[in-house]
TrEMBL record:
Keyword Heme: yes
Membrane topology type: Peripheral membrane protein
Keywords for this protein: Endoplasmic reticulum, Heme, Iron, Membrane, Metal-binding, Microsome, Monooxygenase, Oxidoreductase
Pfam family for this entry, one: p450
Species of the source: Ixodes ricinus (Common tick)
Main localisation: endoplasmic reticulum
Entry protein name: Putative cytochrome p450 cyp3/cyp5/cyp6/cyp9 subfamily
Length: 99
């Protein structure tokens, strides 16, 4: 899966040159003189982390749905969901909802 996620990240960076440039500038500012990437360096690159997490959000759904069993009656707004009902959550739609 790492290769799949890396491929999506590289594809998205290639498609969004402005984001690629910001990531590149952040990496250059943190890693100087050929420094290696380590945990401390990664903590200093919040924009790179945000870009990575956004690529995971939009392209990593392992399946289209997650199911959950309601253990106790649940009120969601004006809808009452009884105990024992199986709920199907469409993760793709959640990750791509503009709101």
């Amino acid at each position: 899966n790492l290769s799949k996620y890396s491929s999506w990240l590289l594809y998205l960076l290639a498609r969004h040159q402005d984001v690629q440039e910001k990531v590149r500038n952040e990496v250059k500012a943190v890693l100087q003189n050929g420094d290696a990437i380590n945990y401390d360096a990664m903590k200093k690159m919040p924009y790179l982390e945000q870009v990575f997490l956004e690529s995971l959000r939009t392209h990593s759904s392992p399946s289209g749905f997650v199911t959950r069993l309601v253990e106790n009656e649940l009120d969601v707004g004006c809808v009452k969901i009884p105990e024992g009902v199986s709920i199907i959550i469409p993760t793709y739609l959640l990750h791509h909802d503009p709101e």
